[in-house]
Amino acid sequence: MIKISEMETLTIKETKKQVEEKKSISGSVAVLDALLNENVNTVFGYPGGAIMPIYDALYDYNDRLEHILVRHEQGAIHAAQGYARASGKTGVVFATSGPGATNLVTGLADAMIDSTPVVCITGQVFAHLLGTDAFQETDVINITTPVTKWNHQVTDASEIPAALAKAFYIAGSGRPGPVLIDITKNAQMQLFEYEGYKKCEHIRSYRPKPIVRKEYVEEAAKLINAAERPFVIFGQGVILGKAEKEFKAFIEKAGIPAAWTIMGMSAIPTDHPLGVGMLGMHGNYGPNLLTNECDVLIAIGMRFDDRVTGRLDKYAKQAKVIHLDIDPAEIDKNVKSTVPVWGDCKETLPLLTALVESKVYPQWLQKFHDCMEKEKSTCIEPEMNPAGDILTMGEVIKTLNELTDGNAIVVTDVGQHQMVACRYAKMNHSKSNITSGGLGTMGYALPAAIGAAYGDPTRTTVAVIGDGGFQMTLQELGTIMQFKPNVKILILNNQFLGMVRQWQQLFHEKRYSFVDITSPDFVQVAKGYYIDGQRISERSQLKAALKTMLDHEGSYLLEVMVGKENNVFPMVPQGRGVAEIVLSKEEI
Amino acid sequence: MQKQEFTITVYTENQIGLLNRIAILFSKRKINIDSLNTSPSEVDSVHRFTIVINETEEVVRKLCRQIEKQVEVLKAYYNTNEEIIWQELALYKVPTEVIAEEVKVERLLSQYGAKAVVIRKDYTVFEVSGQRDETDAFIKVLEPYGLIEFVRSARVAIIKASDGFHKKLKEFEYREPSEEVIENEYLDKNEEVFEM
């Protein structure tokens, strides 16, 4: 081991010489070796002063680790999130200290609330400078504490292998989440006797999965078997638990209609006969309305977000609630459960399936279909087949469905286009819906789509983005230009910050306060980055333009001009119960 | 549900930054911490937080779940005042001259369970350990004689019904936690939970 004071004077060359002599390795090499041991092959990052030793080591790992140089650290973490969501693996980010680290905060918060496994490795100033307000020093551990599942600062190289092993274990196990490891520059440079990498499999104070109590599963099955109008609502827990098959088997045997949260979308194909649509503020009419008519509500891997429940004192008061969740803190957090089933749904669902009777509920299911008919005539039809010449977001998604046949990964940003895309996109495969659900991060889609394209390169990735959100992270076009991931960028431009405009129209007497956003010529911007594209505004061009985008070799930007003041309906207005869902603005 | 005083006992690993991680769970919900103490526990290497808040039981239960969810937290318990033995320690600095002249110190000490920690020419420091009303009462007594300094420690508490943490820790160290580790409050209150 070398003392810090000596180390600052060490040049890279000398470090390498020492490696040969002592047969020990640097902290930086230990970081990269850890990544390889965790089967990481892609890293999203941006170099800087305090992380230079790791980047120097990376120079020799080019053949084993693909590093994607983003244009902003927020882009790196969103890309890592998109990668994680498309691949089911843990996304990895490199960033430097100070501004590099603080730029990760939005993405960490997003990954935290949406349970996305991400490991961020940030550089930090030399340990002896900690607390001196050194150049690019920031207290990243304390800044990121509320938005990380776990974080840890390493000041000695010998701690690196164990810290990273813990980081990957914590990020990916149980209810996943973001982890940040802050490594001081001296620790990155320091040489230490490396004993090899050991994966972490147990931390005594951390229990990723609560023990499954069979009595509760039995109790839940009893309730389900006695139910007349059971209703399943499911979230991302099904996807994160890789329990899609188990989930499908459960609802098919029990014959229970099932609705998804925005995060749970695509866990079953969107056209599954028991799939009755999306929950939530802009979800489908039936699932919202009938939440207050079911007699047993079975919540699986979802957390009763306020956008799903509306007013809590008017939410499913008539129903017995069965709540399956891996995170004990979610049980009874918002909605009191009658029977809590703690555990990984991959384990609990098969137990439950074994105990439930094989049944069908034709009349109950018909109620959902009737609601859908009503929704179709008032909300869906005008979106799908509008009377006027002006394009709607819905028909763009409909046409996209026809061309992709529901096989694409759809990455959405935040706002009206997100709601429309999630309402109408057809999805045949799990992990097809990548969106910022909990945090609602505008600017998420473009970098997340880049990540998704690396996470699952076998599938087409379409990023559906609004004109507002695209301008928040459009610098990542530079990343696309340089590394050429195949991302189809579909901008739905309504020349407004549409969702806020909709609320101002509906709830603020149409006082449009700073929602009128001007955009650059997006096609020209893309062209500046050597990305092909076009803008259309006519229905007659739509299908051909989408086909051109999808068939294009490499990334492509298609901007579709859509109606300026279209609204998303149905809607559960804020502060109302789910049964007070409205189908048009006249009903508000 | 009525707000009342709850004492939260948290067994944790001894980690830098964990205090902040726990404290922000309270501040995020705009809950004031009345008293917070960290100390070693009955088990080597395991730390013990004692936190006092005034809240409804429902809020406290949810908070404990959030605390327990933190990676470096082993276990969090909450108890009402009836379920614990608790003490605080207070120090009082008074001018020796006045005290020696005007007060019958010995009677004072025996009556309030106080003890003189330091007696110097210029000042005397008394110590009282007890519950809030006891330490408060002693302030009233000394105030007329010119209380120079007063300080009170956080609450420390022993849970009456606890068997300590030695046995539990062993269970935590196994890879597969035993039934005991994962306390499911529903199981313990079966009848209440399953009333339909």
From TrEMBL, chain B:
Keywords in alphabetical order: Amino-acid biosynthesis, Branched-chain amino acid biosynthesis, Transferase
Pathway involvement of the protein, from the record: Amino-acid biosynthesis; L-isoleucine biosynthesis; L-isoleucine from 2-oxobutanoate: step 1/4; Amino-acid biosynthesis; L-valine biosynthesis; L-valine from pyruvate: step 1/4
InterPro entries to which the protein is assigned, alphabetical: Acetalactate_synth_ssu, Acetolactate_synth/TF_NikR_C, Acetolactate_synth_ssu_C, ACT-like_dom_sf, ACT_dom, AHAS_ACT, AHAS_small-like_ACT
Catalytic activity from the UniProt record: 2 pyruvate + H(+) = (2S)-2-acetolactate + CO2
Enzyme class, UniProt record, top EC level: transferase
Domain ACT: start-end pairs: 7-81
GO molecular-function term, one example from the UniProt record: acetolactate synthase activity
UniProt-listed Enzyme Commission number(s): 2.2.1.6
GO CC terms: cytosol
Swiss-Prot/TrEMBL GO biological process terms: isoleucine biosynthetic process; L-valine biosynthetic process
Pfam families in the cross-refs: ACT_AHAS_ss (PF22629), ALS_ss_C (PF10369)
Family indicated by similarity: Belongs to the acetolactate synthase small subunit family.
Subunit architecture: Dimer of large and small chains.
Known function: Catalyzes the conversion of 2 pyruvate molecules into acetolactate in the first common step of the biosynthetic pathway of the branched-amino acids such as leucine, isoleucine, and valine.
Name used for this protein in its record: Acetolactate synthase small subunit
Lineage of producing organism: Bacteria, Pseudomonadati, Bacteroidota, Chitinophagia, Chitinophagales
